[in-house]
Design goal:
Layout lengths: L2 H26 L9 H5 E3 L3 E3 L2 E3 L2 E3 L9 H10 L14 H29 L2
Antiparallel strand pairs: 1-4, 2-3
């Protein structure tokens, strides 16, 4: 698959997933109404890259919150929880994984559609 096509697919998928993560961050992380939206606002899509022949795109939690904590650290704690055992101090919320699961089929369709269009363009004479 050409690198330009991979890049196009990654960007299209990342746009969908970034919006879904923002949606889930806005709802799941604000269940009790205490959330200020810092995590949601920190979600940003990076530029496509390549490492070891594998193309990727990162959806990151960028910046520092007003309380001085890293947005990425707070997102991690919200995703996986704090503490262990039967009584964690903060239960895992899994908003990142839930957003991925919610859009998994759509992300696959995006890749399939882009690839099909590319194949058609290669068959034209």
């Amino acid at each position: 698959m050409p690198a330009d096509l991979e890049k196009e697919i990654l960007i299209a998928q990342a746009r969908i997933l970034e919006e879904e993560q923002k949606k889930y961050a806005g709802s799941i992380l604000n269940i009790k109404g205490y959330g200020k939206g810092y995590t949601k606002a920190s979600i940003k899509t990076g530029s496509p890259g390549s490492r070891g022949g594998v193309r990727y795109i990162e959806i990151k939690f960028q910046g520092t919150r007003p309380d001085g904590k890293s947005a990425a650290e707070v997102a991690f704690l919200n995703e996986y929880g704090v503490g262990k055992g039967d009584h964690p101090r903060m239960a895992p919320r899994g908003f990142i994984q839930k957003s991925i699961s919610a859009k998994e089929n759509e992300l696959d369709e995006i890749a399939a559609d882009h690839f099909a269009k590319w194949v058609e363009s290669q068959l034209e004479f």
